[in-house]
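Good morning C.,

I know you're traveling, so I'll keep this short. The sequence:
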Amino acid sequence: MRRGVRLGVDVGSVRVGVARSDPSGLLATPVETVRRGKGDLDRIAAIAGEHEAMEIVVGLPTSLSGRESHAAAAAREFAGRLAVRLAPTPVRLYDERLTTVTAQQGLRASGVKAKNQRGVVDQAAAVVLLQAALDAERASGAPPGRPVEPPGQRPGGESSAGPAR
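The tokens, ready to paste straight into the viewer:
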């Protein structure tokens, strides 16, 4: 298992939940809910800096059949912009099926009423996402999900204009 703090980012249309891992990559905990829109990338970059994150894991919402929805396209676009903003810190996309549902069930089970969940459900979903990614890495020995290449980049760091000369 690689050492270092990872951030989990659950992208919603209104809010972005952020969670972090401990430096050993064993446990995810909630950090903050960031309002989506102007300044959201800056705030997430600040959180990444505060926690000296070595990697960011962004949830990719897919259906149970594995198909991607409009929300998945929005998460990919957000992850691409985040990768540009945080470079060279790696950003990875990880399948987040049912994270919000799991988070809501956990909050309900711990006694949080539905009307009080709005402010914390995004953080809880980010915790579920990040914990799943950490567990997957521990089980496989490989980084979770797929890396996000900043727009205009090819794998290996070359720009779409070709190698630097």
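Safe travels,
E.
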